[in-house]
Design goal:
There is one protein chain. Helix content is 17%, strand content 27%. With 156 residues, it is an alpha+beta fold. It has a single domain, classed as Trna Endonuclease, Chain: A, domain 1. It has a 5-stranded mixed sheet. The mean pLDDT is 88.
Length: 156
């Protein structure tokens, strides 16, 4: 991928996001026009979350810097629920909750580090499904009565 124009590169990243999300079984929606503070919606069943797609090719030190603003500066609270940030040279996605990046102009993403500030959000597609790792959403069980002590049913 070698798209020099940043607007066109962003449009391409949105297509890549849509393809990746659909491959992972997510149900996407798209707002009409460009006036929304987000690019996609994801239907989680009980709720719909809003996703702003960003991408970067900008190397900064050992990682990449990804801009998190629009033409008026940092995104305002409640503009979206998640940022899906694509590190294009590494082909890696970060699914960042809005509350973790609120008010920031940019974020440093370091896919090469084992431990990094946003490492837990690398390829965290489960967040868009509404899942929390290590938490069981529901548990169903079926139990049968204990057999009689003598092993003969209906005996007294």
């Amino acid at each position: 991928m070698n798209i020099k124009n940043c607007k066109k590169r962003g449009e391409w990243a949105e297509l890549v996001f849509a393809a990746q999300a659909i491959e992972r079984g997510l149900r996407l929606g798209r707002p009409w026009g460009e006036s929304s503070g987000y690019d996609f919606t994801v239907d989680q069943g009980p709720r719909i979350v809003r996703v702003q797609v960003k991408s970067t090719i900008f190397r900064e030190g050992a990682g990449y810097s990804c801009t998190l603003k629009n033409c008026r500066g940092p995104y305002k609270k409640n503009s979206f629920d998640f940022v899906a940030a694509y590190v294009i040279p590494e082909d890696i996605w970060y699914i960042l909750p809005e509350k973790k990046i609120r008010g920031m102009w940019s974020v440093g993403l370091h896919p090469e580090l084992e431990v990094s500030k946003y490492g837990e959000y690398q390829e965290a597609w489960h967040l868009l499904r509404g899942e929390t790792p290590g938490v069981i959403a529901s548990l169903e069980a079926c139990a049968e009565p204990d057999p009689p002590a003598d092993g003969i049913e209906g005996s007294s």
